[in-house]
Design brief:
With 454 residues, this protein is α+β, with helices and mostly antiparallel strands. It is built from eleven helices and 13 strands. It has three domains: 168 residues, GAF domain (Beta-Lactamase, 2-Layer Sandwich), CATH 3.30.450; 93 residues, Helix Hairpins (Orthogonal Bundle), CATH 1.10.287.130; 146 residues, Heat Shock Protein 90 (2-Layer Sandwich).
Amino acid sequence: MSKQSEIDRLRRQQGALADFGTFAFREDDLQAVLTGAACICAQCLEVPFAKICRYRSEEGDLLEVAGFGWRNGVVSRAVFKADETTTQGRAFVTGESIVLEDINRNDSYALPAFYAEHAIISTADVLIQSKNGDAWGVLEVDSTTVRHFDNHDIVFLTGFANVIAEAVLTSEKTEAMRSSIDQMKLLIAEKNLLLAEREARVKELHEMQSELLYISRLNVMGQMTAAIAHELNQPLAAIANYVGAAKLTLESENPHTQPLNYAQEMINKAEEQTLRAGEIIKKLRDMVEKRESIRYAENLESVVRAAMSVALFTSVESNTVVSVTVEKDLPPVLIDKVQIQQILFNLIRNSIEAMRDVNVRRLDVVIGLGEPGFVNVIIRDTGIGMPASVVERLFLPFVTTKDNGMGLGLMICRTLAEVNGGRIWRLDDVASGTALCFCLPVAVAPDGVSILVT
């Protein structure tokens, strides 16, 4: 296989993995996710069969719960021993990827009778394991010809196994949440019966119901945020592979021409942003899992300008005026730089989208001293503004003015500001558009004196 063919194959595999990750995140039906994974794995690796086996603890075996290409009576009925006498069992028990290129030369594993009925020659198995280390099952592909499954194929299958494990975990959490909601509904119903004859308590009961539903939505938001962080890693992995493939392509050309040098520079910058995005995701996970963030004294102007250079790249129309005003002699602030830049990305992106359909487009960023011990950052735009119904609940989860928005951006901004010792709020004295301000604590030297950056 030529280098270009190999690059194209890896690109197709990573594209399929990224698309499947998006599908698995949106799909509520776990069986549809498992069946889709088996189908895509078989098609991408150009084999006629694929299967997903789930471990049954009570029976101590592996049951085929989803598959592709098999005759009737195999899926949901085929059972394999969960020990080292089968390829599936060995992958499950040891966690190793098991490849059997030619079953005719096999003397180590017991193979089921339906393998001969389907003319199976080669097989490859990888473990499906959750993030906490629990083994859930096995993903397998099967070929009717002698097939050498190389390291790229195993990495591809492992990527699918990771997405399947996350889909299983999300499904289990969803079921647990539904059970909790059902339990809450039962409790509410019982309370309704007890309080039916006491009209004076009806208002209190309604408030309690609203609070329970609000807590439920916050729990769902926590799961959704963690899922988003995990899901974004799939397209980021694809981007990294695309950049690597592009580098291989560039290396085959004349390296002394200016356009290629410029392309190489752009690719390196894209790769840096990919790594940065991964760091942002890690910080988001840390926030959701309530881990301690590490803060350092930082020059806030440098942090803001670096974030703007990325957020505004290819995003601002030519007739948009952008200005940055910085008060002199500002002290550094004590922050987690990546988390603060994430706030800036969200606010700047919101402002750009709000100005999409207006004639006058102006984005102003002002950095200056705020209350004692704090530095403020104001981001003001001349967009369409916000309706009163949104302003009242601006930083709550699931509140948005966008048709396809999730309503999590400003809630995350508020959380990030608070974990960095500050806060965020909306400014009311704006003639048109929207202005949001967040403050951050000044970094203080051991002697209690504010550090000044010149």
